[in-house]
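Honest question from a wet-lab person: if I give you the sequences of every part of a complex, can you actually get the arrangement of the whole thing, not just the pieces? Trying it with mine:
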Amino acid sequence: MTSSSNPRAIIALDLDYFYAQCEEVRNPAIRDKPVVICVYSGRSEISGAVSTSNYPARRLGVRSGMSIAFAKKILKDNASAVFLSIDLEYYQSVSDRIMDILRSRSEKFEQASIDEAFVEVSSQYDSGYLNAIKVAKAIKEDILSSEKLTSSVGIGSSKLLAKMAADSKKPDGFAVILPGEERSFLGPLPVGKLFGVGPKTSEKLKSINVSTIGELALVNEEKLSDLFGRKLGPSLKDWANGRDESPVVEKPIEQMSRIVTLKSDATIFEFQDVLQPISEDLARKLHSSGLLCKSIGIIGITDALKVKSRSKSLPVPTESGKIIFETASELFSNFFEEEKESRLRRIGIKISDLQGMHSKIGSLEDYF
DNA sequence: AATACCGGCGAGT
DNA sequence: TCATACTCGCCGGTATT
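Yes, you can. This is the full assembly:
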C-alpha cells in the first residue's frame, strides 16, 4: 500500500509593528511620525529599552532592544518623534479580539504570539493555492475593517515557509510560496534569515563557510549534529531544505514568568517587597487558567547581564501565591549564599510544569 | 538503562 | 548607546529509580 497526499496550505499572519500600530489606531494624530514603544525600567528618567517602533522610526535607525537613550539620541532633532510607554493590556485586548475571530473561523488554528498566528486550509487544496489566497485576503481585510490594522501574510506548504514568506514582504505584505518553489525561495537567503538561526548559530555556520540557506541545505548531517546537537543539527538541515512537518495546533501553556528591574543592583536577598506582588500575580494568572504548577524557579540577571537561574520541583502541585513566594524567597537566599559576589540587576520568578487542576498524576505516596 | 531534575544558552516576539 | 518582559526549545550533567 502506498499513500500520498497533497501539500498542506498554511497561512501565516503577522500584525505589522503591532504595539506601535495599536498606538497609531488609538491616536491617529501620531501616524506618519516616528513612534517608539518604550519599556521604562525606572532606574532613571530615560533608562530602559525599546520594545518596538513604527516604520518612520525604523527608517531613521531605531531598533527593537536598543536603549531608550540611544533612540532619543537618534531622534533628538526630530521634533515630531513620539515616545510612548508600553501598554501591554491594551495590545493584548486588541490581539484577543483578532485571534478569537480567526480561531472561530478556522478548522486549524494556532496563535504563535501576541501578534502572529497560523491558519491551515489544506482541506480545500488546489495546486495554485487559489483558495488559500482567497482566505488570506479575506483575513487581511477583516482585520483592517474591524481593527484598522494592517498585517502581512504568507502562504506556504509548512509553518516555516508561510512564516518566512510573510517576513519577506512587510509591512502590509502578501507572499505566496507555491509547492515546489520552496528551495528556490530559501536557497539564496542568508542563513540568518532562516527561522531559528540567530547570531550565534550564524557565526558557527560562517566558521564552516556556510552563508546561505542553500549552502546549509547541502551540509553533511553528521557535521551539523556535531556542531549543533542531535536535535537542532538535523532540524537545521531539514528546514534549509524546506522540510517542516510541525502541525498547526494550539499549544497548551507550559510556563509563566514575571521579571522586574531593580532600582539598584542587589547583593543580598532583600526583595520581599518585589517578590510578593509578582508571586500573587502569577498565582492569579495560574488560577484564571485553571492550572497548577509543579515547579518554581527564580531568574536573576546580573550587573554583567548574565542570566542566572535556580529552580525546584514541588512535592505537590500548587496554585498558592504564598507557596510561590516562599519557594522563590528560599531559592534567592540559597543563591546568594552560593554566589556571594553576584550583583543582580533584574529578578523574577518562573513557574513551570503546569498541569490541569484535576489531572491525576502520581501515586498514593504523594498524598500520604 | 531509562527517566527526572537542574542550570545554562539561544532564539523569537 | 547601554541594554525590557516575556515565551519556548534544547543541551549536557547529574541524580533517581
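Two things worth pointing out. The first strand of chain A starts at residue 10 and ends at 15. The first helix of chain A runs from residue 18 to 26.
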